[in-house]
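Researcher: Structure for this, please.
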Amino acid sequence: MSKRRFSPFEALNYVLLTLFGLSMIYPFIYILVYSLNDGKDSMMGALYFLPRKVTLDNYAQVFENHKIWQAYKITLARTLLGVVLHVSLCTMMAYALSKKTLPGRTFFTFYIFLPTIFSAGFIPYFITLQKLHLINSFWVYVIPLLFNFMHIVIIRTFLQGIPEELEESARIDGYGDFQIFLRVVLPLSGPVLATISLFIGVAHWNDWFTGAYYVSNKDLLPVQTLLQQMLTEMEALSSSMQRAAQQGGQTVNANMAGATPESLRMALLVITVFPILCVYPFLQRYFVKGVMLGSVKG
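Model: Predicted structure, token format:
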């Protein structure tokens, strides 16, 4: 059996893609290694692929903060609820707009498209949320993200590719529109629904802006907003420690049990990124298929 020979272009292509992939993965490896290494030892540098002095003190100190657990509950609740409601509403709207017999179909499409062109700005948006009593409320995380025009377009284009004969045969069996939607359309829409779920799930999980500007109740802060605040505090602490070291010859606070602001920061990053990294591989196999089928009709 003859061995396959690679052309110079293919060999160069593989090398470049491998280097590109490693450049994307290495920052995560560095953060993980730094978070698993003793904070004081990490200040010596030269940490690349393996921790030099393995410890879990950084994670222990992070999880001792009860705010982390409460923030995780808020983030998980908003992500799960937001994904279910967003996908449900967008899919139902896309299903209706995919029907050429829908009265006012063009008008409704333009009506939901228009807000994507014009934005009133931060202050009118804040006033709107205030009038709807969403400020300092859990629902400020969920309700504003229920609608996304591009997601509706992707789902609608996908649904238009489903053969009409399937729906016609279901009507012959006595199914109504809602039964057809539940028993025929949804089971065939797995790839595009998984793709949209991934899009909106990542948006919910990574959103720190809403909690920072629209929520003042500390018990309602999501984990990303809490992370942003803690990183700010740690940067201030690190600066004060550096000034103290320059003035008094000290290096780190002796009460930190081996942890430093930098090592705690790395542990926080791992804690916030790890859950979404665990979910992503399970949806990856639907991702490309869902985007292509929902973007190109044919």
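Researcher: Any notable elements?
Model: The radius of gyration is 25 Å. Residues 185 and 279 are 25 Å apart (CA to CA).
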